[in-house]
Specification:
With 524 residues, this protein is α/β, with parallel strands linked by helices. It contains 19 helices and 17 strands. A five-stranded parallel sheet has the order 2-1-3-4-5, sandwiched between helices.
């Protein structure tokens, strides 16, 4: 993370002892922090927070007027919509005191007298988590804003004709920043020394992965091509989907009933896409049940029809049901009965596209006042036979020592992420901002592998590839493309023609490592 980001971090110090406040200010100033505020009166904390908007609070636990625990409880509502870490400073070593602080919302604690290095490391760790949370929040807000904006544009234009552009545009704009957030969270989790810090980094990583799955669902719908398939256990998929929404279902007093066949055959499908379908159906059922009187029940069932060799998923609710005239249009893109701003009308259209892309079918059965039941049928297909016996993931991610790699990308954050991740694995890594700079690097030094973005100014990835074909043909066998432009027909055609390995943004670092190892071993 950029050192300038830490230098400008806003830190609020709260301690009733002026000498301790001054000591903390000196320590932080010597460490490079420049934007500090302080108070010796805990009653001023809320006012100072509203005025200063701190990124971190250093809070004494024992103070007159208000204790640190009482301050934390006052801050609880103010911190509800954002992650504001609080580092508690306490001379009370008792387990009860530490537990009370953590239960009240403290992010971490340091005991007085404290060791300076430990204090500064905990400050830096909490600030890094704060900034990762902030970046993820901004990306989520950007996603919501772009979806709303583009959906409004489509509703004013030819809806069906431009839906692909909406999905592709949103996915393309978010692919690079999501790659950076996902990768940086993974790197931070791997290097953090504190279990609590690692757990928070993994929370960020899981949230980013959820956004990635949404983006990939958009890409799959807009691309209109067969999904990326693997063996899927439908019963486990349904349990996972229910678990993801368990909290929301519980607070709405919805009883969930599962009737899942234990010997259901595996389905050859894209598990991420099918989970999005089930999550959408559960979310819709939850919203319908909120309008229904108790008891509220959501039922999920699986069946296998031997004669037709089709697996069947049923998602049923005891809500108000669906009117017949609405049932006829329920899977149309942009058709929604929700109030403006609460739905885009894309959820069930995306679900139908995903199910039909798997060779299946989705339908609904409902009568007003008697709830609704959605039925999904999927063919149980035999996976294709392949002679490409890829290594297991834990083997594929092992680095190949002593190799040199050139990363070519015009987005500094993406290039820096790839360089840091690969350097940690022992590779020697250089970066270039475009294909022209990459040619200069290649003229001055030999590289075992080139990882290049496809769309760049000055000289693009495909243009760099063609130039290397002319100058040094053996290098194209060591070429890996990273692209967020897979929906562009010319880009797809070029990548298919070259047969070069490719990584689609947003990517996970483990995927990068597997591809890097595979290419290096193949060209050794």
């Amino acid at each position: 993370m950029d050192p300038e980001t830490f230098r400008t971090a806003k830190i609020l110090i709260v301690d009733d002892e002026a000498a301790m406040v001054r000591l903390l200010e000196l320590l932080l100033e010597n460490a490079g922090y420049t934007d500090l505020r302080s108070t010796t009166d805990p009653r001023e904390v809320l006012e100072r927070c509203a005025e200063f908007q701190p990124d971190l609070i250093l809070l004494d636990l024992r103070m007159p007027h208000l204790s640190g625990v009482q301050v934390l409880k006052q801050l609880e509502r103010w911190r509800a919509d954002l992650y504001l870490p609080v580092l508690v400073l306490t001379a009370d070593m008792s387990r009860a005191s530490k537990r009370a602080a953590l239960e009240a919302g403290a992010s971490d604690y340091v005991t007085k007298p404290f060791e300076q290095t430990e204090l500064l490391l905990r400050v830096r760790n909490l600030l890094e988590i704060r900034f990762l949370h902030r970046d993820l929040r901004r990306q989520n807000e950007t996603l919501e804003a772009q979806i709303q904006e583009r959906t409004h544009q489509l509703l004013e234009a030819e809806k069906l004709a431009t839906m692909d552009n909406l999905l592709a545009g949103v996915a393309h704009e978010l692919s690079s920043p999501l790659s950076v957030i996902l990768g940086q969270a993974g790197l931070f989790a791997a290097s953090a020394a504190d279990d609590g810090v690692r757990a928070r980094a993994r929370d960020i990583e899981e949230a980013a992965e959820r956004c990635v799955r949404i983006v990939r669902s958009f890409l799959a719908m807009a691309r209109r091509r067969p999904p990326e398939r693997g063996r899927v256990v439908l019963t486990q998929l349904l349990r996972d989907a229910v678990e993801l929404l368990a909290f929301e279902l519980r607070i709405d007093n919805i009883d969930v009933q599962l009737d899942l066949e234990s010997d259901l055959p595996l389905v050859w499908a894209d598990g991420h896409q099918l989970k999005q379908v089930v999550l959408n159906l559960i979310a819709n059922a939850r919203q319908a049940l909120r309008e229904a009187p108790p008891p509220r029940r959501l039922s999920l069932a699986t069946r296998y029809e031997v004669q037709s060799r089709r697996a069947r998923i049923e998602v049923a609710d005891t809500g108000p049901g669906i009117l017949p005239e609405i049932q006829a249009r329920i899977f149309e893109p942009f058709f929604t009965t929700k109030p403006e701003g609460e739905g885009t009308g894309l959820g069930l259209a995306l679900a139908r596209g995903i199910v039909e892309g798997h060779g299946g079918a989705i339908s609904v059965e409902s009568r007003p006042g008697e709830g609704a039941r959605f039925l999904i049928e999927l063919p149980v297909e035999t996976p294709p036979v392949t002679t490409n016996d890829e290594p297991e993931p834990f083997e594929a991610a092992l680095p190949v020592p002593g190799k040199t790699i050139l990363v070519v990308d015009d987005e500094p954050a993406v290039a820096a992420l790839l360089a840091e991740a690969l350097s940690r694995d022992g590779y020697q890594v250089d970066t270039a901002a475009n294909g022209a700079v990459a040619l200069e690097r290649l003229a001055a030094r030999k590289y075992d592998l080139i990882i290049s973005d496809s769309g760049m100014p000055v000289l693009s990835g495909p243009e760099l590839y063609r130039e290397l074909e002319r100058r040094d043909p053996h290098l194209v066998r060591r070429f890996v493309f990273v692209t967020g432009d897979v929906l562009n027909p010319s880009t797809r055609a070029f990548l298919a023609q070259t047969g070069a390995p490719q990584l689609e943004k947003p990517f996970a670092l483990e995927s990068v490592k597997r591809v890097v190892r595979r290419v290096l071993l193949a060209t050794a």
